[in-house]
Amino acid sequence: MSKTHNLDGRTCLITGASSGIGAHLAQAMAKAGARVTLGARRTELTEQIASSIREAGGEALAVPMDVTSEASVAEAFERAEQALGPVDTVVANAGVSRYGRSTDLAEADLRQVYDTNLLGVHLTANAAARMMMAAGSRKSGRGRIVIIGSITAQLTGQGDAAYAASKAGVDHLGRQLAREWVRQGINVNVVQPGYIRTELVGDWFDSEGGKAQINSWHRRRIMGIDALDDMVLYFCSDAAGHVTGSTITVDDGQSL
């Protein structure tokens, strides 16, 4: 295994790990050698994934985690530390969407999107940084925080204003936190994926509108669930020691 994808000795926590990109990345990180904590509200699903990782010889823990609650986030990190050791690598992946014209969306829907996608990332990153600093990240330089954003942060469209705005927010938040913690041995980077067929988008890409959207992209295809593996594993690894404050787009040219 190359240094880029070697996570041996790392203790990782990933949010939104009950399905889709989060569930897949948790398994990919475990295969790369990391001890993995899967955080999500749907613990019945994360426990199934954690069990499959353990059955394959890895170390994994499922913990209840509501990223919109600072107390819940702190408890998840504490449980991860008690079971697997101090967390030195975090993938802030949890996110939700509520589609519709802005004037048709209820306040509760807007708050859920912003609280999960923006506040949730900030609370997760704060808890991660506190644990990393306490474990000596300033000296070791091993702290890694990867934020999963979206290409919608740079696009305009119909029906996803709150989602896109929240993702634009985490893009800049990542750079702000990278600057704030640059002397603390913590690297913060953002990966902005294009459209991937996951639970988040439901059956949209099987509809006529979804098929038309795919055909509008230059390569006329949608990305697979493993599209982010190389970039995320790189940012989590020792190989990315000199990379912080970066935003990388992985979208197969969808936004071109």
Outline the structure in words.
With 256 residues, the chain is an alpha/beta fold. The chain is 43% helix and 15% strand. The protein has helices at residues 20-31, 43-55, 70-84, 107-134, 137-140, 161-180, 208-216, 229-236, and strands at 11-15, 35-40, 60-64, 89-92, 143-148, 186-193, 247-250. α1 (20-31) links the parallel β1 and β2.
Keywords, please?
43% helix; 256 residues; alpha/beta; seven-stranded parallel β-sheet; 8 helices; Rossmann fold
Task: Give a brief outline of the structure.
This protein is α/β, with parallel strands linked by helices and 256 residues long. It has eight helices and seven strands, in the order βαβαβαβααβαβααβ.
Strand and helix layout:
Elements: E1 11-15, H1 20-31, E2 35-40, H2 43-55, E3 60-64, H3 70-84, E4 89-92, H4 107-134, H5 137-140, E5 143-148, H6 161-180, E6 186-193, H7 208-216, H8 229-236, E7 247-250
Parallel strand pairs: 1-2, 1-4, 2-3, 4-5, 5-6, 6-7
